[in-house]
């Protein structure tokens, strides 16, 4: 019996015992990556997509209304959109809907894409779903059909096969970078104008966001209690103000503006922040550090609240947004 057959039998058994769990949760239960689990299901409700990353990105606007889910460390961000436009370059694809949604996708990180039927977050019924994985079997993007009968989803079946991917185990190596002098970093910080400028600064000095926040503490940042970050999430619902959520990791940027209506507790200390077109799920048990950061911008200084886990990974960033047309 092959390893794929063993994993598929384990998946079937786990699904019978815990039908409420999705493929990601079942993969964690089995101690494998979600990509490995989906690959083991090839021919049993899962098909490989035989499209280049560029071709697949170009098809996204033709799939009709979508729910786009991005996973980060201990958090997920879900955007529901009626339509979108996309600009594709040599390495990046930029997906947008007006001024409310912007997703930057790093195409060289797209190792395997598959087509299947999965349960949307918070839903009981399954829907057509495209999942995009990196070479470590980690899901980078999930795209669910909000109109399952849309003809473009049927057309996707003509680009499928039984090609089996081979994933690599991920070893998370921590590199403690030495930041430049505080005066030098503060001077560079004053010239920041947008998120792209910040990411270039981090790459230039090989810094993580949390390292940069610590380096400019007392000038452009201050550490805050994690409960204050959670209270800020609650206040966005109370005030009903337009808020931008941002998630960044491994070359990916997903940001969306919305007015949130309620904050609700979920299982295992997860919090769910809901808006009309946007949902955020956050594992509060993993929330280890929070920062209030001031960034100069083209239209004035902007205050951002950032949440990090124990390893210093950014979970999500929260900021007030100007009304959009």
Automatic annotation (TrEMBL):
Pfam families: HemS
Any GO BP: iron ion transport
InterPro entries hit by this protein: Heme_Transport_Util_sf (IPR053733), HemS/ChuX_dom (IPR007845)
Name of the protein this chain belongs to: Uncharacterized protein
């Amino acid at each position: 019996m092959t390893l794929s057959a063993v994993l598929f039998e384990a998946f079937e058994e786990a699904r019978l015992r815990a039908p409420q769990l999705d493929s990601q949760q079942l993969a964690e239960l089995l101690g494998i990556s979600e990509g490995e689990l989906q690959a083991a299901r090839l021919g049993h409700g899962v098909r490989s997509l035989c499209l280049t990353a560029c071709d697949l990105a170009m098809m996204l606007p033709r799939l009709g209304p979508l729910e786009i889910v991005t996973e980060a460390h201990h958090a997920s961000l879900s955007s529901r959109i009626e339509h979108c436009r996309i600009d594709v370059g040599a390495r990046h694809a930029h997906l947008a809907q007006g001024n409310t949604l912007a997703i930057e996708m790093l195409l060289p990180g797209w190792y395997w894409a598959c087509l299947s039927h999965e349960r949307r977050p918070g839903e009981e019924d399954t829907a057509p779903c495209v999942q995009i994985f990196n070479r470590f079997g980690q899901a980078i993007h999930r795209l669910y059909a909000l109109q399952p009968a849309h003809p473009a989803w049927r057309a996707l079946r003509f680009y499928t096969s039984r090609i089996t991917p081979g994933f690599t185990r991920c070893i998370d190596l921590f590199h403690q970078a030495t930041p430049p002098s505080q005066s030098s970093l503060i001077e560079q910080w004053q010239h920041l104008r947008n998120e792209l400028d910040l990411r270039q600064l981090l790459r230039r000095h090989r810094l993580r966001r949390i390292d940069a926040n610590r380096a400019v503490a007392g000038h452009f940042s201050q550490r805050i209690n994690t409960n204050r970050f959670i209270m800020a999430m609650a206040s966005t619902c109370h005030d009903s103000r337009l808020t931008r959520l941002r998630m960044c990791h491994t070359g990916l940027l997903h940001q969306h503006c919305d007015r949130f209506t309620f904050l609700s507790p979920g299982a295992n200390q997860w919090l769910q922040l809901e808006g009309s077109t946007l949902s955020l799920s956050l594992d509060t048990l993993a929330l280890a550090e929070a920062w209030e950061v001031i960034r100069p911008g083209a239209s004035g200084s902007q205050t951002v609240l950032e949440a990090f886990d124990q390893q210093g990974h950014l979970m999500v960033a929260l900021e007030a947004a100007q009304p959009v047309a």
